[in-house]
Amino acid sequence: MESWAVSHPLNTVTEDMYTNGSPAPGSPAQVKGQEVRKVRLIQFEKVTEEPMGITLKLNEKQSCTVARILHGGMIHRQGSLHVGDEILEINGTNVTNHSVDQLQKAMMFMRAQFDYDPKKDNLIPCKEAGLKFATGDIIQIINKDDSNWWQGRVEGSSKESAGLIPSPELQEWRVASVAQSAPSEAPSCSPFGKKKKYKDKYLAKHSSIFDQLDVVSYEEVVRLPAFKRKTLVLIGASGVGRSHIKNALIRQNPEKFVYPAPYTTRPPRKSEEEGKEYHFISTEEMTRNISANEFLEFGSYQGNMFGTKFETVHQIHKQDKIAILDIEPQTLKTVRTAELSPFIVFIAPTDQGTQTEALQQLQKDSEAIRSQYAHYFDLSLVNNCVDETLKKLQEAFDQACSSPQWVPVSWVY
């Protein structure tokens, strides 16, 4: 049970004021030029696995106040705090002199974007005090007073005590210091061949050396109530079976899943219908559309241009259907937004049967993609059996849409 003391500005109509604004009997008189505030003690049940769903800021008096309340979050559901409330005390401890950063620590959750084993870390001051975690784990940040070593605990773990983890700055420095000046490019997994990476407002600025090297460490996240994922993204090496899975999903659930027809500059074939398999446009028009940032991804294949428009995906969403995308992994940063709300599934090749040269190459290409982009994946499946893969994929997708979900904080604020 959490216990907070908060100060809230009184309205002209409250239990302590008359409707004309004059002081009510027994209430503090309003001092001219000053704001009357009411101090109240609130108590609420704090679920360990669920963040409170608020952000804090310093007001003009340098007091810590509630800046935002996340709709559907714990505090919003309980109605215990309001925007503008000043935090005075938490569980009997006076926090009037605490900074926003100090108070926010208890409400900070991060998704790990790399695997970490303290026993293999030569920089950690005490290996036994380290916290082991894997890519995708949600870590509650308990303390970050040390600029190099934060303290945290993995959500859902039976271990309640906190452990040391490298801070984002330390991890990014570590990776950048050993990174190659020209990192290798992941193999293409697109049916269109190699594509240019589309850069627009969705992509982070790449002015720093860390962004140029695509260095990742942690991603701040919040836990939202269940909501519908609008886009299903399939990632995998070319030849792993993504197209088969995509077509099977659409065939089995035509009222649920839709593939956005790409645009192309190649001439239509006799059996092709405009807007069904492809949208056919001129090279000049496609070039203009690319310049206008209308494509989430585009490229060329056998002398013709191909690409998928944002608008095509949006039209599917307006029909209350799920858009299925099979894109280059480099495009994940572009589509991983609140606007598209994607559920990203990595399809890995079979690990059974005879290890032919072709399968070994497929596994090698797949591992190259996984090692570079695993922090984007919501689910990874080994495609040993298509029917089993389809079943697991649909179950996981439905589960994601019907359960509370951890999402990037940028999707909310």
UniProtKB/TrEMBL annotation:
One Gene Ontology term, aspect cellular component: cell periphery
CDD domains attached to this UniProt entry: GMPK, SH3_MPP1
Keywords, comma-separated and alphabetical: Lipoprotein, Membrane, Palmitate, SH3 domain
Localization terms from the record: Cell projection, Stereocilium; Membrane
Domain Guanylate kinase-like: 229-398
Residue ranges constituting the PDZ domain according to the UniProt record: 41-107
Stretches assigned to the SH3 domain: 105-175
Matches recorded under Pfam families: Guanylate_kin, PDZ, SH3_1
Superkingdom, taxonomy of origin: Eukaryota
Major place of residence: other
Role according to the record: Essential regulator of neutrophil polarity. Regulates neutrophil polarization by regulating AKT1 phosphorylation through a mechanism that is independent of PIK3CG activity.
Family per record: Belongs to the MAGUK family.
Protein's UniProt name: 55 kDa erythrocyte membrane protein
Species assigned in the record: Saimiri boliviensis boliviensis
Gene label: MPP1
